[in-house]
Specification:
single chain; alpha+beta; 6-stranded antiparallel beta sheet; 6 strands; about 25% helix
Length: about 190
C-alpha cells in the first residue's frame, strides 16, 4: 500500500510541475502595450546605429524615338513609392513623430514622410526628347535604414528600425552615353 501511495504522489507531483508545452529556454522580455505605455517620448532615450544608405530606383520608363520620329514608350520598372515606416515598434503618431524628429537631429538626415517621387515626374522630360535613340526616364531615392534602441528608466529596452528616405531625384538617361559611376543614371542603365 505504501508503494502505491508513493507512486500516486509522485505522478501527481510530476503532472503538477511539468507540461508538454513547457519551454526550457529562458523567457525573453516581450514588448507590450503596457511597456510602451509606461515609456513615453518625454522620458525616453534613443540610441542609433549607423544608418545604411542605398541609391534606389523607384520607377523607370523607356522611350524609343525612331529615325522617322515615331515614339514608343513603356514602363520598365513599375512605380514603387518609397514610404517611411517604423518596424518592430509602436507606430502610434506620438512615437512616430518623436522617432522621426530624433532621427533627423541625431543622424543629420531629414527623413521624408511623403510617398516619394512619382514616375509621372519624368514625363515632361521624355516629352522633350526628339533625337533618334533610346531614353530611360527614372525616379529614385536615397533609401535609409537605421536601427535604434529606446530605453526608459525601469523598463526593458525596445528595439526597432526606421526605414525611409531622405532625398529624391528624377532624370533621363540617353542610352549609349555612359552614365557617371555610382549615380542614379547608372542604376537606370540596366533598362537600356
Amino acid at each position: 500500500m505504501k508503494a502505491a501511495t508513493v507512486m500516486v504522489l509522485l505522478a501527481t507531483a510530476l503532472m503538477a510541475g511539468c507540461s508538454a508545452n513547457d519551454d526550457p529556454s529562458p523567457a525573453l522580455p516581450q514588448k507590450s502595450a503596457s511597456t510602451t505605455a509606461a515609456c513615453a517620448p518625454e522620458v525616453a532615450a534613443i540610441k542609433w546605429e549607423t544608418p545604411a544608405v542605398v541609391r534606389t530606383l523607384t520607377g523607370a520608363t523607356r522611350l524609343t524615338v525612331s529615325a522617322n520620329g515615331e515614339r514608343s514608350i513603356g514602363v520598365v520598372k513599375q512605380d514603387q513609392p518609397a514610404v517611411t515606416k517604423i518596424n518592430g515598434f509602436s507606430d502610434s503618431e506620438r512615437w512616430r513623430a518623436w522617432i522621426l524628429k530624433e532621427a533627423t537631429a541625431t543622424l543629420q538626415r531629414p527623413f521624408d514622410v511623403s510617398s516619394g517621387p512619382a514616375l509621372a515626374e519624368v514625363d515632361q522630360f521624355l516629352d522633350g526628347m526628339t533625337k533618334t535613340g533610346d531614353y530611360i526616364g527614372f525616379v529614385g531615392v536615397f533609401a535609409v535604414t537605421a536601427d535604434f534602441r529606446i530605453t526608459c528608466e525601469g523598463q526593458p529596452p525596445l528595439a526597432g528600425s526606421l526605414v525611409g528616405w531622405d532625398s529624391s531625384t528624377s532624370g533621363v538617361l540617353e542610352c549609349g552615353r555612359p552614365p557617371a559611376p555610382e549615380s542614379f543614371a547608372a542604376l537606370a542603365s540596366q533598362y537600356c
